[in-house]
Write a structure and sequence with these properties.
Number of helices: 9
Shape: elongated
Distance between the termini: 10 Å
Strand content: 5-15%
Structural class: alpha+beta
Order of helices and strands: EEEHEEHHEHHHHHH
Largest sheet: 4 strands, mixed
Strand order of the largest sheet: 1-2-4-3
Helix content: 55-70%
Radius of gyration: 33 Å
Length: 299
């Protein structure tokens, strides 16, 4: 099964006086990269979320947004005393070095970001367990929705990829059809070259062998076309691979591009005869580049 790395999932879970809302947005990434944004007082549950998601997804950047509403009668607030001290010392230093008037007030201190946070130190073990359970449940539900969307997107990607692979296969047939004329062209060129060098060949028998090897190398694209067809077959086989198929597809596409580049190099001097082969090879490279763009979004 092929999965896209693009998707969205959300879940809302409720219990007595407790509501947990989790949203997950996913985009492509070389590895699994999870970022969690949640209230500071419940930061202890961040690892729980990351562990559950990393167990279900292999690749992609996941941005997780968490909201926890827990209504309780007794609320304890924590004050960031280190922040107040640093701010106070900064004010003293500014007044000392610059002509600044005024005194630090409670109103100014109260406006400092992250000065006061809701403490979880007064929560009982039972309360923390319930919150953890609901966070885990909401995470799993949102992940399931995300997986479903990535599956649907994966099907759409594969439909487009299949069309492009079929197009490449058609271009390969065009190249193969022109290969016979291609060999005959170089055979005639070799005969003409031998005739031209006849006086020299009589004195140097190795020269004929060198010329024959040179033309044989130029006219042989059988290896390239055979490997290209093999790569197409390998690529098709990856559709049923669920483990990081995107990386493997990208590697095969790089190999395909290398073979087509060699075919273009060998057919570049054929003038009118090589137009059909060259055009098919160029169109193949275009399709390969489009495929590489597509597989970047496959898990």
């Amino acid at each position: 099964m092929i999965y896209s790395m693009t998707g969205f999932g959300s879940s809302r879970v409720e219990a007595n006086n407790l509501t947990v809302l989790i949203e997950i947005k996913s985009v492509n990434h070389r590895y699994i990269d999870i970022h969690v944004k949640m209230p500071g007082e419940f930061q202890a549950f961040e690892n729980l979320i990351k562990q559950r998601l990393s167990a279900q997804f292999k690749r992609g950047r996941l941005d997780v947004f968490v909201r926890v509403d827990y209504k309780r009668e007794n609320i304890k607030l924590d004050v960031n005393h280190a922040l107040v001290k640093a701010y106070s010392e900064l004010m003293v230093d500014l007044k000392k070095n610059y002509a600044i008037q005024g005194d630090l007030t409670l109103e100014m201190v109260a406006k400092l970001p992250n000065l006061v946070t809701i403490s979880t130190s007064d929560l009982s073990k039972e309360e923390l367990d319930i919150i953890g359970q609901k966070v885990a449940e909401a995470t799993d539900n949102a992940a399931a929705q995300l997986r479903e969307m990535r599956t649907i997107e994966g099907r759409s990607l594969m439909a487009d990829i299949d069309r492009r692979i079929a197009t490449i296969a058609g271009h390969l047939e065009t190249i193969l059809a022109g290969a016979d004329k291609f060999v005959e062209y170089y055979r005639q060129q070799l005969v003409a070259r031998v005739t031209e060098l006849a006086p020299q060949l009589a004195a140097d028998s190795n020269r004929l062998e060198m010329e024959a090897l040179l033309y044989a190398e130029r006219c042989d694209i059988a290896e390239e076309t055979t490997r290209l067809r093999s790569h197409l077959d390998q690529f098709a086989g990856l559709k049923t691979l669920g483990d990081e198929a995107g990386k493997r597809m990208d590697f095969i596409l790089q190999e395909m591009n290398r073979e087509v580049t060699t075919i273009l190099s060998k057919t570049s001097g054929l003038n009118e005869l090589g137009k059909g082969i060259g055009q098919a090879a160029i169109e193949t490279k275009v399709e390969i580049e489009k495929l590489r763009e597509q597989v970047q979004n496959i898990e």
